Amino acid sequence: MIRTLLLGVILLVWGPLSIAAGSDDESCNVSTLRFSMIPKNNVERQVEGYKSLTELLEQRLQVPVQIIRPTSYNSVVEGVVTGAVDLAVLGPAAYVRAHGMDSRVTAFASLSYAADFFTPRGEYYSSILVANADSPFTDIKRLRGARVAFTDPGSTSGELIPSTQFVKEIGGDLNRFFASRIYAGSHDKAMEALLDRRVDAAFVSSSRADRFLDQGRIDKSSFRVLWRSEPIHFDPFVFGTSLCPSLRKRIAEFMLSGDDQLEPYLGFEGASAIIPVTDDAYTPIAELSQ
Fold first, then answer.
1. Per-residue 3-state assignment (H helix, E strand, C coil) for 206-251
2. Rounded to the nearest 10 degrees, how much is the dihedral formed by the CA atoms of 210, 204, 76, 184?
3. What is the pLDDT of residues 134-186, one digit of tens each?
4. Are 14 and 104 contained in the same domain?
5. What range does the domain containing 40 cover?
């Protein structure tokens, strides 16, 4: 049975795992595989969607999988670095931070998507700045003095890219250009704030905007895209510091196998495939983070 717990609690009580998990690696003592993800949208919806993947991992590995509910981007970074989380989905900037703190946090897989309305490239997405299409904000200049939603301080498209690339468009500091900045907590919440007119514009992931569109929460005429970043490689699946080599190998082999049983999970993500990825894919983000 897949259990779920709050990540902040796990970080407080985590201790070494102690029960062997059917592995040929003598040092691989695992009683439970702990999985978490950055909170890109509604966490309960994410937990339900990832169960199609974690249930398969349970069957293949013969190890119980526990889904750890994230409280923030930073909580997942801390989890994989401290060993409280064994397997996670991180954003590119969150991964760069975690890998920089401990190089044993390694990326091994990512998702590929068919071209979509907001995201034209299969293995890449963009940070986009969107406004309501019926608003007076028709270009970047009109946003001076506006209220803008960001995602999370640890977000790539909802914080790092606007802070390092978009600033070149306005020739100055974000806090001086905008009247107010809020952290919505997730891409979906940022778009909800925009639709509710609580903000005038929002920086979000183009892929999350596509999922919003797929869910019928917006249509193709709802948002006006005022700015788009350079392509960013999609979020990586990463191994935490405490996961042993034999389990890393078995997880990677299964997730990259193209097994038809992965289709329900890919359907949840709206993705076409799980593809291999290495640290090199996130070098541009690492350079921006310096």
1. HHHHHHHHHCCCCCCCCEEEEEECCCEECCEEEECCCCCHHHHHHH
2. -120
3. 999 999 999 999 999 999 999 999 999 999 999 999 998 999 999 999 999 99
4. yes
5. 3-112+235-289
